[in-house]
Amino acid sequence: MRLRFHYPAQFAARIERQGDINMRLTVLILLCGLFLVPASPAQQETPSLMPLPASLQMGSGQLAIDPSFTVSLSGPPDARLERAVHRFLEQLRRQTGMVALDMKTVHEAGELAIQIDGVAREIPELGEDESYSLIVTSNGATLRAPTTLGAMHGLQTFLQLVRITPQGFATPAVSIQDKPRFPWRGLMIDSGRHFMPLDMIRRNLDGMEAVKLNVLHWHLSENQGFRVESKKFPKLQEMGSDGLFYTQAEIRDIIAYAADRGIRVMPEFDMPGHSTAWFVGYPELASAPGPYEIERHWGVFDPAMDPTKESTYKFLDTFIAEMAGLFPDKYFHIGGDEVNGKQWDGNPQIQQFLRTHNIKDNADLQAQFNTRVQKIVSKYGKLMMGWDEILRPDLPKNIVVQSWRGQESLADAVKQGYSGILSSGYYIDLMQPAASHYAVDPLSGAAASLSPEEQKRILGGETTMWAEWVSPENVDSRIWPRTAAIAERFWSPQSVTDVDSMYERMEVESRRLDWLDLTHNSSYLVMLRRMVGSDDIAALKTLADVSETVKGYSREELSPFPPTSLSPMNRLPDAVRVESMTARQFSLLTDQIVSGKMKLGTEVRIRSLLLRWRDNPIDLEPAAMRSSLVKEFMPLAHDLSALGSAGLQALDYLDRGERAPEDWKTEQLAMLEKIKKPTSQLELAVLPAIQKLVEAAANQPPVTP
Ligand code: ACM
After folding, report:
1. From the CA of 385, how far away is ligand 1's center (Å)?
2. Domain 221-236+270-395 class?
3. Architecture of the domain whose range is 46-178
4. Beta bridge partners of 269
5. CATH 3.20.20.80, the chain: domain bounds
6. What pTM does this model have?
7. Whose CA is nearest to atom 1 of ligand 1?
8. What angle do CA 613, 560, 190 make, to 5 degrees?
9. Number of neighbours of residue 325 by Cβ within 10 angstroms
10. Which of 95, 353, 409, 412 could form a disulfide with 403 if both were Cys (CB 3.0 to 4.6 A apart)?
11. Which entry of 338, 408, 454, 621 is annotated as an active-site residue?
């Protein structure tokens, strides 16, 4: 049974008065147990959907999900939709423990009646109709869509509607009309830097389907690895992958798996830079003599293809023909980013080529290379895509530019008549909070002043999971749940911007994504247990729950060892969540105190957290004695302890209504400044809230006698 807090208004008024938060509060908290009353079952809560649909109206009542639940399909026969319905039923059974799975479950008079007008192409394409309408009443549900794709999206919405109620599992009565805002909603997975096994790709495709993403951009070659089997040039994978590559049969399986979920798979083969792994087997492609080895470090490196040799284009022609046959998607990504030009500067033949052909600089040389590659890509029926460095007016207008260096390059591209997608702002490898990504809109910034015609050429966006700092074990936790919030940005109306609502719904979606075997939540505990060497992880979890890995590109310089692709990823910075929800909750609680609007129970919760933080070094010591992986972070535990003590002292001043002395404030602020400068790859996410408490204690009006 769901319970809600109700307490009399005079208590509420009283506890909102700042200063009146002393011991009497504890009595109130005990008293509040007397006012626990069950919520009215008739009350309809807005369902926690992510992405939010274009339009949603709540009805009254609910549709029970019980063992008699069935689905009916009408419209043209559609094997893919039938498979989707079977997966839907499996998922529904997993969520509710009910629902039969035999073929009879999909028959004529279903509680959920699905009706499509037409069958979508087996392999999804950009710009197909993905709309649907879903109407749920207490008698049944109707899902209508122009094609397979909309019906599949509607099934995902239905799964998100299912909830446990006092009467059992049910879907609230709703009327939803839905369609995406952008046709290109992607996740880029970098299998080049760290190889990602097939089960990682599959479970992430499941996650993408759940939040209505429709493009897997697969980054398949890097300095650190070439990851696809080429039958034409087998030394690419034989010598450039450490044996970690996908066979062509495996690639075809993944493409089919993705297509079944309405997801396109676009390959990226980065060229002419980011290509050392190609040169291990084929050094003649490079602009300097070999031999080459697979790169183990991170960064931008000198090796680049030789754009002046006809043999390079002959190779690429054969290679692209092979890959264009393997990947059915219309778009073919050639990378094109971060060519430092050093090998070109150091090669006398290339320098002579520049003079002979009157080529001004390396950027122009790369533009010539792109023009040649574009012709090859086009010859094999594909449209070329590249990072924003490829943007040059001499390329045909049907290429797509992927903006990563800022929103300006996207606006520039579409002004020049190109199409583009936005990734700047969606770099999930940089460990930024969900809110910062959520604030970025493909049509904001420089794009906001474009004409409607120009804005139409902004096709959407992609999050990018660059893989320097992820292993198959922790990668899901860097993708999810933040990618669900970004998916909402790509799908839902531009007016959907409420950050608190996003966080609430993202947390709910995060739990649902667990049911797809994504490991973003489960790997955390597994990794903490391994670090401690036992199940007794309470103390380490207290520290880990409030720690965040340093943001942006600063992690490498704070690494205690030179990080390489062979470094273990088993330390606390690899395990902790990108965004500490404990810190977010704590900050919301301390805001209540600082604003003088404290709710019942807040101070007790704050104090209990602060005490645990203060005592963390003592609690953690036994594990630190056993494990070097824990010991490494004892200094961080001591910092957390200092924050806990400062917070407790600040609360004491606030409770007494006594302004904290100047020298106390100076001392605390100095301590906070010291802790702010990260000395490990972790930072304490509760620090800003503690600082607010300290400042509130020091800035209280002096007590009037
Ligand atoms: C990139 O992040 N180098 C595209």
Report:
1. 13
2. alpha beta
3. 2-Layer Sandwich (3.30)
4. 221
5. 221-236+270-395
6. 0.92
7. 337
8. 95
9. 11
10. 409
11. 338
